[in-house]
Amino acid sequence: MPNVQRKQGKVILHLDMNSFFASVEQSYSPELKGIPMAVAGNPKERRGILVTCSYEARALGIYTTMSVGEAKRICPELVIVPPDHEKYRIASNAVFSILRTYTELVEPVSIDEAYIDITDIGGLTDAVRIAENMQQRILHELDLPCSIGIAPNKFLAKTASDMKKPMGITILRKRQVPHLLWPLPVIEMHGIGQSTQKRLNELGITTIGELAQAEELTIKIKLGKNGLRLQKRANGIDNRPVDPEAAEERKSVGSSTTLVIDETELEPCLETFRFLAKKVAKRLDAKGLAGQVVMIQIRTSDWRNFTRSRTLVNPVYKEEEIYEEAINLFKLHWEGDPVRLLGITVSNVIPVNELHEQLSMYNFEKYAKEEKMDKLVSELEKKFGSQSIKRGLSER
C-alpha cells in the first residue's frame, strides 16, 4: 500500500503582551512592580483617562478608560505615570526581533501583538515547547510578560491568547469551538463591537453559536460581507495567512493627484486637499487605522518637490481632522509658487481599536457625539450616494 503523507494543517501563534505599557514602565522602574499602578494621559488631571493598568490594579476593579479620579477613589494609593511612547516602541521592536529569530513569518498587528506561523518549524508537535521558549525569552531578556494562543488559524489563535492572562499559553482547536465559544454572548467574540452586537441582537442573535448557525442570507442582508466573515469565524473558519509584509503596508496611507493646471490660487488647492483628505480617510477606515503624522506633498510647476509634516498628540482618521492638518501645513509653508501636484499621507498608523486618546470627560462626550454623526452620514451616503451629504463649514 503506498505511503500517503497527510497534509499538515497550519499552526498559528498569537502573541499578546500583558498590560504592555504598564509592564514596560515596571521593567524600567522595578519599584512599580507588585503594586497597583497605571499609565494615564495626564496623571495630574483627575479627568484624564487610564491607558492601561497593572494586574494588581485590575484586581481592585480598576480598568482601562477609567478616569484618573474614579481610579483614585477606588485606590487612593494607585501610582500613575505618564505614557512614554518612545520607550514602548523600543520594547515592541525588541519583542518582534526575538520572534524573528524563530521564523520570518511574523506579522505584527499592533505595538504589542503579533501572529507567528510555526507550521514549518515544528507545527503542532512542538507548538507548546516553541511558545514556552518564546514566552520565557521575552520575560528573561526584556522583563516583559506575554500570553500566547495556539490554533489552526488567526481568529482562533487571537481568541486563545485572551483566555489566560497574564503569562498564559492556550491551545484552541476548531473542534472545541461549539463547546467553548458558542455559548458566549456575541460581544465576547473578537471583531464584534457594540454596533455589530446591536444589529445582531435585532436579528435575535445573542450568542456566538446563534451567529454560527444563522441563515447566511439573513446575515448578508443585515451585515454584508463583513457579517459573512464573522459567521465563518464563529464556526472557527479563518483562511487569512500570516503576512510579514502586511505590517509594512500598514505604516502609512496616502493619496496624491496632479492638478489640471498649474495652480496659483489658494481656494482650488484647498478643494484638492478636501478631495485628498476624503480619499485618505476612506482608506484608513477600510483598514481600520489611525495615524499620528500628517504629511503633505507639494510639487511645483518646475518639478521641485517638498514635503511638510506634523506629528500629533492624538492619532487621526477622520476626513475633517486630516483636512484641517493638511491645509494648515499648506497655508504655513506654501509661498505662492505654481502648484502641479498635491498629496496627503497619514503615517505612524495603528489600529483604531488600539487607539487610546488622552481625553477629558468633556471632550470624550464630544467625540462620542461625532462618532454617531459620522455613522449616520456614512449610512446616508451608502443609500443616496457619496455626494448627497455636504458638511457645513463654520466661518473663521
From TrEMBL:
Its main location: cytoplasm. Residues 12-193 form the UmuC domain. CDD domains: PolY_Pol_IV_kappa. Its cofactor is Mg(2+). Keywords: Cytoplasm, DNA damage, DNA repair, DNA replication, DNA-binding, DNA-directed DNA polymerase, Magnesium, Metal-binding, Mutator protein, Nucleotidyltransferase, Transferase. Mg(2+) binds at residues 16, 112. Binds 2 magnesium ions per subunit. It is found in: Cytoplasm. The record marks 21 as: Substrate discrimination. InterPro entries: DNA/RNA_pol_sf, DNA_pol_Y-fam_lit_finger_sf, DNA_pol_Y-fam_little_finger, DNA_polymerase-Y, DNApol_IV, PolY_HhH_motif, Rev_trsase/Diguanyl_cyclase, UmuC. It holds the Pfam family IMS. It comes from the Bacteria. The active site is at residue 113. Its EC number is 2.7.7.7. It catalyses: DNA(n) + a 2'-deoxyribonucleoside 5'-triphosphate = DNA(n+1) + diphosphate. Gene3D superfamilies: 3.30.70.270, 3.40.1170.60, 5' to 3' exonuclease, C-terminal subdomain, DNA polymerase, Y-family, little finger domain. Poorly processive, error-prone DNA polymerase involved in untargeted mutagenesis. Copies undamaged DNA at stalled replication forks, which arise in vivo from mismatched or misaligned primer ends. These misaligned primers can be extended by PolIV. Exhibits no 3'-5' exonuclease (proofreading) activity. May be involved in translesional synthesis, in conjunction with the beta clamp from PolIII. Belongs to the DNA polymerase type-Y family. Monomer. This is DNA polymerase IV. It comes from Sporosarcina oncorhynchi.
